[in-house]
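Hey all, quick one. A colleague (J.T.) asked me to put the NAP job into the tracker so the inputs and the structure tokens live in one place instead of scattered across chat threads. No bug as far as I know, just bookkeeping. Sequence used:
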Amino acid sequence: MSAQILSGKEVASAVRAEVATRVAALKERGRTVGLATVMVGEDPASEVYVRSKHRAAERAGMLSFDYHLPADAAQEQVETRVRKLNSDDRVDAMIVQLPLPTGLDGNQAVAAIDPAKDADGLHPYNLGLLAMERGHLRPATPSGIMRMLDYYDIATTGKLAVIIGRSFLVGKPMALLLGAKGVDATVVQAHSRTRDLFDLARRADILVAAIGRPRFINGDHIKPGAVVIDVGINRTDDGLVGDVDFASAIEVASAITPVPGGVGLMTVASLLANTVTAAEHAAG
Ligand code: NAP
């Protein structure tokens, strides 16, 4: 058996087209959608991500504003920049590119964002609404994954979803979204202290790997016919690889996301979707 490839390229392109239509509709009402990024320091991976976010925003017809602070910026400088953007009418939504350099508190910087302008959906208020199954700005990576499952008509009701990873960026919100009413998966959240992790993984109908360890999961850890979502992005001598060993997993799973070309593209698309949603709400 060879699994169906869940193409982030295909789904993200559908999302981007929808976003561009919504951006154009707002423009007709005299409102140009704006996305701002705040980056601190010179992390090369973050620079690549930020560039791709600006490119994607501009292609969708948005204005994009790039604020780059030096690596030795103080916490207060970062938060001051965020607060200025909170009151900048050209900016509908913003992201603080994480991680911040050592010594700075990324969570606190995100908490300084006006929740109504939270493009990544990571503000504590928006995460709280998510836990209550309310709100409209959802964490970009997990909501991108939900969009992929929907696009490919992957059934979730009553399925056992095992999520490996419990970060507030991916694992935790993923668990909330998969377990929400209407999605109705039965969710198990695993982490580094989980016992018999691979036995658990082998029981999953939907396996989400958000670990940050190259090829940690392989075909032996996957139930035949499972849907495998690989969130990991790991830089290795072989280039970018996921948390799943694609070559062995594809022989066992029924569907799998590739790395690159999978979840990563959905994250950027969801960020744009959140930005236009924020603009629509602001426009009333
Ligand atoms: P993170 O904050 O480092 O969290 C990693 C999680 O994996 C933690 O909950 C950790 O458990 C768990 N873990 C680590 N080693 C483990 C082990 N041996 N067994 C079981 N669980 C283990 O990372 P993250 O921000 O969630 O990101 C995870 C991966 O996704 C990274 O590769 C990151 O680059 C990638 N990512 C991709 C996208 C995208 O757009 N595709 C977006 C965000 C992140 P503990 O909590 O017990 O430490």
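Adding what we noticed when we looked at it: The longest helix spans residues 8-28. The chain has two domains: 30-115, 139-264.
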